[in-house]
Write a structure and sequence with these properties.
This protein is 46% helix and 0% strand. The protein is mainly alpha-helical and 328 residues long. Helix 7 crosses helix 9. The protein binds a DNA duplex (21 and 21 nucleotides) through helix 3 and helix 6. InterPro entries: Homeodomain-like_sf, Myb_dom, Myb_TF_plants, SANT/Myb.
Length: 328
DNA sequence: AAGTCACGCAACCGCTCGCGC
DNA sequence: GGCGCGAGCGGTTGCGTGACT
């Protein structure tokens, strides 16, 4: 037996509510209370389904509804609550006085979710998206596909923001190797990825995936990301001799590429780069805040600032130069 | 100025749950 | 225990609006 409709849908109005309908509904509820939603529309003189009346009241007309933009505190609470409760919008709304489940759901889908995706956070699991950290994708973005001379070092530098240092070092190694090995950059990707996987097996990258409130990755300032190679070449460090310009024609077979990963000269160079582009420009991180904590952020901040703020829960950014559209 | 596109929001739809008979 | 019903919830849709070309 089919389920009976919640109400007789014949001659019932649908679509946006008019001010007159709002007034009728508000007056009735303020006088008699909501009572039975099924019979309410008839008693209130509305040509609406009871369900529609309930939604209109709970999502829009209720006097205790807070309207306007979500504050940082509210946004932070939503993210934290969502990480615990999932898509239990009503449960989340219950923790945010004046906000409705529908409003929170809409805000999540139109703002927070997109922002998390842009930050490389899976909005469902609240964990960093491992597919975004895929070595091949990052390195293809960084190295480019045609000629190492066109390699996107800027992309690689940006990519550092979402890698752990070991990972970045390997990626940088691949890039530098590509400088001297014009033949097949994608092979290098495979080789370095293999090396990375080996390291991962040794537990060297286990901190790459952490609980949301533990995951913190330094952010890069635009200044550093936008600078070219010259800006990141540390004064106190030189490119290893075998990577110098005059050695571009060096036969790749002359160098054991895996051994290069252990080369002190290269390591020193990479560490210097690391210091130059990373540590000096790292955005100070605050400790994760609890729901009860008071935030120091003010509500009037611009949207861009909010993006940078990224909530204390997520300190991960995808650089502009890294095209993540394929993953979304 | 007109057309197109993207976005945000309100509302709807279908399903599940809980309660009373 | 089964059934009907009301209420609530989460996913989806459609419209209005502003930005962009």
């Amino acid at each position: 037996m089919g389920r009976a409709p919640c109400c007789d849908k014949n001659d019932l109005k649908k679509g946006p509510w008019t001010p007159e309908e709002d007034l009728l509904l508000t007056n009735y509820i303020q006088t008699y209370g909501p009572g039975n939603w099924r019979t309410l529309p008839k008693n209130a003189g509305l040509q609406r389904c009871g369900k529609s009346c309930r939604l209109r009241w709970t999502n829009y007309l209720r006097p205790d509804i807070k309207r306007g933009k979500f504050s940082f505190e509210e946004e932070e609470a939503i993210i934290q609550l969502h990480s615990v409760l999932g898509n239990k919008w009503s449960a989340i709304a219950a923790k945010l006085p004046g906000r409705t489940d529908n409003e929170i759901k809409n805000y999540w889908n139109t703002n927070i979710r997109k922002r998390l995706l842009r930050m490389g956070i899976d909005p469902v699991t609240h964990a960093p998206r491992l597919d975004l950290l895929d070595m091949s994708s990052i390195l293809r973005s960084a190295i480019g596909t045609v000629n190492p001379s066109f390699l996107n070092l800027q992309g690689l530098l940006g990519a550092q923001a979402l890698m752990n240092p070991e990972f970045f070092k390997l990626a940088a190694t691949a890039t530098l190797l590509s400088l001297k090995n014009h033949e097949n950059a994608s092979n290098l990707v495979s080789q370095v990825q293999q090396q990375f996987n080996n390291n991962a097996g040794n537990g060297q990258v286990q901190n790459q995936v952490a609980a949301p409130n533990q995951f913190q990755t330094p952010t890069l300032s635009n200044n550093n990301v936008n600078n070219g190679l010259s800006s990141i070449s540390p004064e106190n460090s030189s490119i290893p001799s075998y990577l110098g310009e005059n050695n571009y024609q060096l036969n790749a077979q002359q160098i054991n590429q895996v051994d290069l990963l252990l080369d002190p000269e290269l390591e020193h160079y990479l560490n210097s780069i690391n210091q130059n582009i990373g540590h000096e420009s790292v955005t100070p991180l605050s400790t994760p805040t609890s729901l009860n904590s008071s935030s120091t952020y003010v509500n009037s901040c611009a949207e861009e600032e909010r993006d940078t703020y990224c909530s204390d829960v997520f300190k991960l950014e995808i650089p502009e130069s890294l095209d993540i559209s394929d993953f979304l």
